[in-house]
Design goal:
This is Putative desaturase des12. Keywords: Fatty acid biosynthesis, Fatty acid metabolism, Lipid biosynthesis, Lipid metabolism, Membrane, Oxidoreductase, Transmembrane, Transmembrane helix. The protein has about 300 residues and is mainly α. The chain folds into 2 domains: about 180 residues, no CATH class; about 110 residues, no CATH class. About 60% of the residues lie in helices and about 0% in strands. The protein has a two-stranded antiparallel sheet. It starts with a helix and ends in a 12-residue tail after the last helix.
């Protein structure tokens, strides 16, 4: 109800600057989740300079979904047990479960025990991530709450109601659901069992990297895999390319179609697991310099 009132205010009451500020904060927060928490820290799809890491950490704090460390740990757990009963976001139980119901539940003792085996050593060596983890609630109070809510009142004299309900409640609702879609999107854009080319019986779809979500779970380290049903497109991928061109992002990881073809052939010939064959093919591929400047 609070967000509904915020929507009304957004449409009919807020000043133009508040509307633009709402759009900016929402976009920046989601960028922090997609290019930062997800692609950089959860899957190591590229490496970032310290300055870029700090910027993405601040952006991710604007999402208000918990620290990078905690979010990544849950996300890696999700990938480690994808599509099993242990996966808290198991898409086989439907979108409502993976997007909403699971957020209201605590992990079972069995899941908690398995969670402890998730390797977080890389993030524990990351000073930016650990700084945010240590001071998260202070950063949250300042960056997510105080500064955004104060700006419309301080700088362009909007009302307290518009600031609280639009920049506060409505912004949080939009960013929260955008962040949750990172785990539940496969229920929206992925294939369902029994559909044409289901991933458990036919791997041809990865040749063109269509049916994006299933490709992402096979090759999570490809920086081009978008969070919302796209591959090699979208704002997040574009931003990573811009940062790479500026020298702020390096060692962008992706998979050439030739490597996918080789992996499929090896899997068919040797009967080995497809993911194992893909990883082997990727290790042997030679990406051209500045490959990120070319679309697939």
């Amino acid at each position: 109800m609070l967000s509904l009132y915020g929507t009304y205010l957004l449409l009919f009451e807020v000043k133009m600057m508040t509307l633009l500020f709402f759009m900016l904060l929402t976009s920046v927060a989601l960028l922090g989740m997609t290019t930062g928490a997800h692609r950089l820290w959860a899957h190591q799809t590229y490496q970032a300079s310290t300055g870029l890491k700090i910027m993405l950490m601040l952006f991710q704090t604007l999402a208000g979904v918990g620290s990078i460390y905690d979010w990544v740990k849950y996300h890696r757990f999700h990938h480690a047990h994808f599509a099993t009963d242990v996966d808290p976001y198991d898409y086989n139980q439907g979108f409502i479960h993976s997007h909403l119901i699971t957020r209201l539940r605590k992990l079972s003792p069995h899941q908690e025990k398995l969670m402890q085996s998730i390797d977080m050593s890389d993030l524990e060596k990351d000073t930016v991530v650990m700084f945010q983890k240590k001071l998260y609630w202070l950063l949250y109070a300042i960056i997510f709450v105080l500064l955004p809510l104060n700006a419309p009142l301080e700088y362009w004299d909007d009302t307290i109601l518009c600031s609280a309900f639009v920049i506060g409640f409505l912004r949080y609702l939009v960013v929260l659901h955008g962040s949750w879609l990172i785990e539940s999107a496969i229920s929206v854009w992925g294939l369902k069992p029994g559909e044409k080319s289901p991933p458990d019986t036919n791997a041809v779809f990865i040749l063109t990297k269509t049916f994006w979500p299933h490709y992402h779970y096979l090759v999570p380290y490809d920086y081009k895999s978008g969070e919302y049903g796209t591959y090699d497109g979208g704002c997040s991928t574009a931003f990573i390319r811009v940062w790479a061109a500026l020298g702020l992002a390096t060692k962008l990881r992706t998979v050439e179609t030739a490597s996918i073809q080789k992996a499929l052939a090896d899997a068919a010939r040797t009967k080995k697991d497809l993911k194992t064959c893909i990883d082997a093919a990727v290790n042997n591929q030679q990406l051209p310099e500045e490959h990120y400047l070319k679309r697939a």
